[in-house]
Amino acid sequence: MTYIELVEVVAERTGYTEEAIRAVFKALRITLTEALVGVGDSVSFHQFGKFKVRTQAARKVKSPFLGLSVEGVPKTGIIPEHLVLKFRPSRAVRQKLNP
Q1: Do the Cβ atoms of 42 and 51 come closer than 8 Å?
Q2: CA–CA distance from 30 to each of 74, 94, 99 (Å)?
């Protein structure tokens, strides 16, 4: 589902205009980004899931076919430690995915 399709479905189900739904989504996106990136908090949606920022440890990377360093990785062949966004679905979502 694309962003446009999501806006249309939510507008239809709630009775609000698409412009109002876009404004809510924009505010939600800004707020989530500020909470996750700026503060480093986790964000939970009841019965949907939890977004959390985690630290990905540094690791060595090689091409599985040639044994050469992968393009875009420093010449050392090591991806430095960095932050990643993780999502953990709620039990209700997991049960619907895997009945």
Answers
A1: yes
A2: 32, 27, 34
Structural contact between residues 52 and 88, judged by C-beta atoms closer than 8 angstroms: yes
12-59 pLDDT, tens digit per residue, is 999 999 999 999 999 999 998 888 887 777 899 999 999 999 888 988
Q: Are residues 91 and 49 in the same domain?
A: yes
Which residues span the domain enclosing 98?
42-99
| Domain shared by 56 and 26, yes or no | no
Quick one: 77 and 99 in the same domain?
yes
Question: Going by DSSP bridges, is the β-strand pair 82-89/43-45 parallel, antiparallel, or unpaired?
Answer: unpaired
| Average pLDDT of every residue of the chain | 86
Question: Model-level pTM?
Answer: 0.69
Closest CA to 25 of 6, 51, 52, 40: 6
Q: Which tokens sit at 74?
A: 């420093």
Cα distance between residue 45 and residue 90, in whole Å: 9
One domain for residues 98 and 52: yes
